[in-house]
């Protein structure tokens, strides 16, 4: 059973839009879902938004594919709720045309003719404005009594290599519109994205390429004045050997004969030698991975941003694993 820490001030007090990015394969969707659960703990209401059309959120929470509407997908500890929205570009464009141009019927006709894909292909900046705009609207939306509908919004955003272009929509639409609804909409989006209420978090593994993309992404965001959040190290492999054994494995000096004797004493006399050789091979790989993690962690220490570490779950990812990761984020002050 999860032992949830008591509510406390977090590193991100005042932040209402948490954008989660990371190199492909780092587990950014999983981390975004865990962050949403952590933020919802204690009776809060959080919206988790997906913008890439992969239905990754539905898979994580083991629910049917999400339609283009906000649906509750999880209950957080202490009464909180997580809602999810998979933004469909076509539906969002039709909604956009209705909102700003009163052209809902025209939008549906465009959809039937395949013009929606055509429009967003020749003007990809418009697609990003629509996706970020829908998320920003969720951040700003209020109840009749003036309170926000959602206490926080978490966006499972595009990968690190595209995140600056995706969020910096003013530059993206500069060639599309100088004035009018498109420009006004982009300006409204940027007021949210550039505000202290937004933080862009980077998910990485302790491997050379993800760490380098994280560092490059942080540099790029800083260059254009977008708010950098924290760095979340995902799937850290804990060392299973002591320091002396790791050093011996890395140096190739593990005593195979001693391992064989130990295996024979354990009743594995017949296959002791091949098993010992395989164990030495695995120990060497483990020592190399541990050294790599240490080196990449030292590189990340040069980034002046909060850092959080999530463990590799030995039993794989499931719903219970999401709650474990959410607990880890809470304990480290991320939510």
UniProtKB/TrEMBL annotation:
InterPro entries: ArsA/GET3_ATPase-like, ATPase_ArsA/GET3, P-loop_NTPase. Gene3D superfamilies: P-loop containing nucleotide triphosphate hydrolases. Residues 17-191 form the ArsA/GET3 Anion-transporting ATPase-like domain. Pfam families: ArsA_ATPase. It comes from the Bacteria. One of its GO terms (molecular function) is ATP binding. Signal peptide: none annotated. Transmembrane segments: none annotated. This is AAA family ATPase.
